[in-house]
Amino acid sequence: MTTTAPRLKDLRDFYEDPSVPVASGTPRSLRQARMLADALGPATGGGTPRTVLDIGCGDGTAAATAAPLLPGHRIVGVDWSQDALRRARAHLSYTIRGELTGGGLPFRTGSADAVLFSEVIEHLVDPDAALDEIRRVLRPGGHLMLSTPNLAAWYNRALLAAGVQPVFSEVSLRGIHGRPGTEVVGHLRLYTARALREFVTASGFEVVRLEGAPFHGVPRPLRALDRLACSRPSLASILLLHARKT
Fold this sequence. Notes:
Elements: E1 2-4, H1 11-15, H2 26-40, E2 51-55, H3 61-66, E3 74-79, H4 82-88, E4 94-97, E5 112-118, H5 127-137, E6 138-149, H6 154-161, E7 175-177, H7 193-202, E8 205-213, H8 223-229, E9 238-245
Parallel strand pairs: 2-3, 2-5, 3-4, 5-6
Antiparallel strand pairs: 1-7, 6-9, 8-9
């Protein structure tokens, strides 16, 4: 199958294209929000309000899903794309333009209690620098909630065995080549559960928890099987990782 997209000048141009999907799937967002709520605890009833940065917030739906589970905490949407921020303002009270490379994020060192990093790391040219910057803005013991597609998802293992390009992987920003799907979303890197654990640990974090989540793009007849695979994160469609700054 081959589908084509308009020719774009570079990667930044690609992410400013309004046709590029920036929303996160609700099942994954909800599972991640519950993990974050468990980690932070309530800010009401004597609890301490915390600052949560949703870095790469896209259209803000992931943070909007988390907000009802985080009453009293402040969620700040951060994105490089002006188009994404424009859409995020419909869901979030606080948004700011920022990026993980170059000049870094516009936040003081140790100023954040938690970072949501939802479906972002697979789009980055330099994920090492990104985690360094996230670690900088987190306070000691601060929480990182990272989600990313699983290269070793149950169906990708079957596709690779058949010589088919795995779901989530892309060889071009201009079209789909050799894999199922219809959307070009700009994935540059993919992780297995083991690789993600090792990478985050090497970046100065302690992995607290790793869970699986379903993928909203799985065909309806296979969704029950996809939900079942979540019980084994190494087979799940999406990896949900909770880590703390050491």
